[in-house]
């Protein structure tokens, strides 16, 4: 038996285990299950690796509440553990007159969120990165934005936790079905595992990332939401280019869209990634071709896309997605788009990088995208963490601390 069972071995699951281990008595037992052979195989291991500063998000959101602090906490964690981090900052660059107004709105939002930002001249921007280009005389400079190897950070945190004999991390283990979590009298959950074992837990936490909504639905949670997964496609340089690319360069995003636009980012080891262009994901783990297609998910997801296209309020967003993002699905079109904000030799980019999937949720009735994280304590003895999309990795450390405190306040631990 375990006191706390956490499902999901990405950044959110690992950081929740860390925070609860600090909040609970030393004798409390915590078990984390991950269905893949290794941790961080999906969202946490396929993101951009960017520690976001936190200026894109409305001030009342959990994203704004935790992003700035999360960037600082992960930076400190890397420094304490000697893990690679590239403190290169980020420029946000408009491509036309229309984008200038929204760029200034982003700047004001960042200041409201307490983020360290500067509005600098184009000449000052080129002192940071001589290859940057764009429209207008001013760009946003975000000095605290950094880049890490997110998969390495999750691995290191798991190694930290393994020093505690009361924390067990099991990989390659899943449920027999999503409906195998049963509440019994006495307040215990009994979970049938693929290993043939049955695990009993006093408290169950769903941090399953791309699979979290399916798991929640099986428990009667999150029934007002459905999937709207978005696949991000990148190209990566054939060789290290950090002698040319000095910072991250982002466009001004489409107002109201969930994606930040095709941009250039550095990796900790000096390569350059460009993307992501946004494409439909026809299943929750459909990274390429027919890989991991589940036909029930395909029908459901395609139905949502179709309904949104014919919905008055959402048609504009879907149309922007179809006309502006989907046409960029080749390496040539990705680099052509980035070349509007950064000079480059496009022949340096001849290969794709592994794609990621944003497990975005949409409201079933209104078809509006849900723009913040969701914590659902409705079921006794259960917590469901949903819609942990970008900047979920950046937010994960303070977000996990918040969960531990909330569980204490509610008398759950």
TrEMBL record:
Catalytic activity: (S)-2-hydroxyglutarate + A = 2-oxoglutarate + AH2
Entry keyword annotation includes Flavoprotein: yes
Single GO MF annotation: (S)-2-hydroxyglutarate dehydrogenase activity
Database matches in Gene3D superfamilies: D-Amino Acid Oxidase, subunit A, domain 2 (3.30.9.10), FAD/NAD(P)-binding domain (3.50.50.60)
Broad class of enzyme this protein falls into: oxidoreductase
Entry keyword annotation includes Oxidoreductase: yes
Top-level taxon of origin: Eukaryota
Requisite cofactors: FAD
Record's keyword terms, sorted: FAD, Flavoprotein, Oxidoreductase
Residues of the FAD dependent oxidoreductase domain: 3-405
PANTHER family: L-2-HYDROXYGLUTARATE DEHYDROGENASE, MITOCHONDRIAL
Family designation: Belongs to the L2HGDH family.
Protein name from the UniProt record: L-2-hydroxyglutarate dehydrogenase, mitochondrial
Organism of this sequence: Halteria grandinella
């Amino acid at each position: 038996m375990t006191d706390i069972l956490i499902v999901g071995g990405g950044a959110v699951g690992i950081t929740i285990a860390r925070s609860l281990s600090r909040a609970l008595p030393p004798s409390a037992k915590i078990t984390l299950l991950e269905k893949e052979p290794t941790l961080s195989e999906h969202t946490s291991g396929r993101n951009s690796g960017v520690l976001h500063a936190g200026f894109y998000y409305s001030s009342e959101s959990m994203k704004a509440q935790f992003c700035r602090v999360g960037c600082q906490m992960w930076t400190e964690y890397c420094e304490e553990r000697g893990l690679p981090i590239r403190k290169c900052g980020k420029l946000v660059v408009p491509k036309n007159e229309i984008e200038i107004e929204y760029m200034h709105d982003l700047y004001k939002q960042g200041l409201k969120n307490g983020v360290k930002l500067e509005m600098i001249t184009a000449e000052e921007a080129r002192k940071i990165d001589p290859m940057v280009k764009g429209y207008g005389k001013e760009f946003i400079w975000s000095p605290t934005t950094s880049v890490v190897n997110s998969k390495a950070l999750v691995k290191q945190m798991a190694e930290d936790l393994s020093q505690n004999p009361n924390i067990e991390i099991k990989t390659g283990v899943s449920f027999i079905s999503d409906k195998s979590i049963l509440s019994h009298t006495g307040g215990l959950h009994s979970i049938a595992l693929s290993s043939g074992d049955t695990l009993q837990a006093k408290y169950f936490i769903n941090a399953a990332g791309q699979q979290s909504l399916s798991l929640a639905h099986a428990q009667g949670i999150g029934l007002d939401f459905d999937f709207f997964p978005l696949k991000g496609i990148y190209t990566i340089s054939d060789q290290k280019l950090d002698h040319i690319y000095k910072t991250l360069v982002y466009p001004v995003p489409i107002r109201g869209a969930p994606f930040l636009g095709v941009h250039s980012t550095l990796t900790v080891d000096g390569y350059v990634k460009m993307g992501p262009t946004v494409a439909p994901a026809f299943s929750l783990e459909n990274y390429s071709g027919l890989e991991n297609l589940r036909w029930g998910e395909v029908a459901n997801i395609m139905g949502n896309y179709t309904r949104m296209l014919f919905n008055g309020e959402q048609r504009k967003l879907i149309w922007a997605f179809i006309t502006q993002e989907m046409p960029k699905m080749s390496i040539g079109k990705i680099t052509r788009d980035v070349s509007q904000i950064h000079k480059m030799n496009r022949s340096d980019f001849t290969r794709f990088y592994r794609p990621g999937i944003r497990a975005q949720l949409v409201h079933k009735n209104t078809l509006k995208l849900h723009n913040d994280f969701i914590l659902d304590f409705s079921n006794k003895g259960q917590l469901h963490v949903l819609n942990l999309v970008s900047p979920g990795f950046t937010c994960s450390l303070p977000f996990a601390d918040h969960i531990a405190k909330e569980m204490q306040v509610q008398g759950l631990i």
